[in-house]
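FIELD: query
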Amino acid sequence: MRPSRLATVLDREFLGASEGHHTPVMLWGPPGVGKSQIVAQVAARHGVPVIDIRLSQMEPSDLRGIPFRNGSVVDWAPPAMLPDAQRHWPAGILFLDEITSAPPSVSAAAYQLILDRRLGDYRVPTGWAIFAAGNRQGDRGVTYAMPAPLANRFSHYEVETHLDDWVSWAYGIGIHEGLIGFLRFKPELLFDFDPARSLAGEMAFPSPRSWEFADRALKKFADRPELLAETLAACVGRAAGIECAAYLESLHRLPDLDAILRGEEVPVPEEVDLQYAVAAALAGRALKARGQDDAALVWGRILTYAGRLPLKEMGVMLVSDMHRGVGQPLFAVPEFSAWAGTVADLMLYD
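FIELD: result
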């Protein structure tokens, strides 16, 4: 399932915890696709904490707690890491990350916690959702087959990579527009994980997570071109890193973006890679204009330029990215109708 749809599922599951019809959710996927980040974003949207428990780092007794004598009987003191409405928050997310890396003896200790929301006398507070994540056995990680009794305690979703969802997220957190343009130009490099390559000695590979690392490298080494290609390769793998560095080096040939936003007649680049780059850069400028007095004017001039792009699909991509970031106000811009008329045979998807 693509991340934007999965986020809706997790939102509903979180709200369902307070309403008494929450089902624990298991997220499956290879390393780097953003499983943990999706959960963190759900918590951020609802303003609640996440308690991240790594069962792979625990012994079975760590979950059960410590026994102590209470008169003639023995009680158990539950571990402080488990959700507590007074100590933590009335609502939140209990996240069992890397659950498939936990030995069977440890995952078995979590059965009651996941299905019955309790461990002995301890109860998971109402309002706390239970999510888990893990890698598949073919992903070259330290994984155990999930026992059937544990698997039957979850609803299961496979996390897919989706370029539009990643681009929307990337604009939102300020990922360099050159990287966004590169991945628009080379979408197959958003995620390219081959377990066999790690056996051959190459550890880095392109993934949503590692492209965020590449963004950090670009911000640190943009002024050191002799180092940039190697630092990008260290994040996303040698082939992708060198190709991305070459793409970024070509960006000095981009048209004058400020002139486009002033409404001047600026030529459209002939090279397809530069068209992707200018489309990504203009979408970024459109999002930065939100809330400014001249936002509609900026959006209108970008829409006019989008209508001049030789490939209609390129203009649709640009305006789609704008719409995901700007929303309904984009439709009120007069130039939108004119642009839509030029692409009437194509559809604009969310």
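FIELD: remark
The CA atoms of residues 18 and 127 lie 4 Å apart.
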